[in-house]
Write a structure and sequence with these properties.
The complex is a heterodimer. Chain A is mostly helical. Chain A contains three helices and no strands. Chain A folds into two domains: 40 residues; 52 residues. Helices cover 79% and strands 0% of the residues of chain A. Chain B folds into two domains: 101 residues, Rna Polymerase Sigma Factor, Chain: A (Orthogonal Bundle); 88 residues, Winged helix-like DNA-binding domain superfamily/Winged helix DNA-binding domain (Arc Repressor Mutant, subunit A, Orthogonal Bundle), CATH 1.10.10. Chain B has a two-stranded antiparallel sheet with strand order 1-2. In chain B, helix 3 crosses helix 8, helix 7 packs across helix 9 and helix 8 packs across helix 9. Classes of the chains: A mainly alpha, B mainly alpha.
């Protein structure tokens, strides 16, 4: 077993410094590269955009059939109600002439 | 946030103009990361310590009195963070199992090849670098810190004393013991 001379020891320490510095730089680069390699999260992917477009189209189609029918029914209901109101409320003669109207009706 | 430039800063910063924090990070991040990595031997832990170091520096920047250089001040923060991390038992546990933990071969294999040396001489040198790496890892905490600050970061005794909070004489003693231990390890491999 041979002991190192001071010169050899100094040289080894110098090489150790170079090795650690170089290796540290490599590691730092890897950390940076890893950071940039992480894919950035996109809010909407292409497939999600397509799915959303299809859903919206389907909703529009269904709405175009359902909504008019609902509005048509509502209008018809309103008309029936108004007729009933007319029948019950409207008078063919003023209230002061109603007894006379009854007499005419009985004849 | 501004810091006064000191004579130790790199050429880009050697002006009388105050440095902004971004410049400070750009200049000293590699150094802090290197020290943390060489001390902890775990890439993730070193990255965490580096980030914490600059966060603390930012928070404490108002208390910086320029009694030592900015570099030494940052290294002082890094030394404290590394010590806290190393004493953390949880870190010790995960370090053994971590995929990012570094083995001596990683550092030794990074030796710079020199064409003037024979392949045998290069192999021998690589072996010695690996032995130093291994010996440094087995040093007691203070000796290891002093050893790395001196022989990797090229800091002088006074700077190391300022960064570690030790007296200059104590630094010298730790350095002497560290060198003796490393050399003993190297002597066995030569």
């Amino acid at each position: 077993m041979r002991h190192l001379t001071s010169e050899e020891f100094r040289e080894a320490l110098g090489e150790f410094r170079s090795a650690v510095r170089g290796w540290s730089e490599d590691q730092a680069q890897e950390v940076i590269a890893l950071g940039s390699a992480i894919p950035q999260r996109r809010f909407w992917t292409a497939s999600q955009q397509l799915a959303l477009a299809l859903v919206l189209a389907a909703v529009c189609i269904v709405a175009s059939f359902v909504l008019p029918r609902h509005s048509g029914n509502a209008l018809a209901n309103d008309a029936v109600l108004l007729n009933q109101v007319d029948v019950q409320v409207s008078r063919t003669a003023p209230s002061s002439l109603e007894p006379l109207m009854k007499l005419v009706a009985e004849e | 946030m501004a810091f006064p430039a000191t004579s130790e800063m790199e050429h880009a910063a050697r002006t009388d103009v105050a440095l902004d924090f971004e410049t400070l990070v750009r200049l000293y991040r590699p150094k802090v990361f290197r020290f943390a990595l060489a001390s902890l031997r775990d890439v993730d832990a070193a990255e965490t310590v580096t980030q914490d170091c600059f966060l603390r520096a930012y928070q404490a920047s108002g208390r910086f009195r320029a009694e030592c250089s900015i570099q030494t001040w940052l290294m002082q923060i890094a030394v404290n963070l590394v010590r806290d991390q190393y004493r953390n038992r949880r870190f010790q546990f995960w370090r053994r199992a971590s995929l990012t933990a570094v083995t001596p071969a990683d550092a030794a294999g990074r030796s710079i090849p020199d064409d003037a040396r024979s392949p045998e001489a290069q192999a021998l040198l690589r072996e010695r670098v690996a032995a130093i790496w291994e010996a440094a890892g087995k040093l007691p905490e203070r000796q290891r810190t002093v050893f790395l600050l001196r022989f990797v970061e090229d800091m002088d005794l006074l700077e190391i004393a300022c960064a570690t909070g030790m007296k200059e004489g104590t630094v010298k003693t730790h350095l002497f013991r560290a060198l003796r231990a490393v050399r003993a390890r190297l002597g066995g491999t030569a």
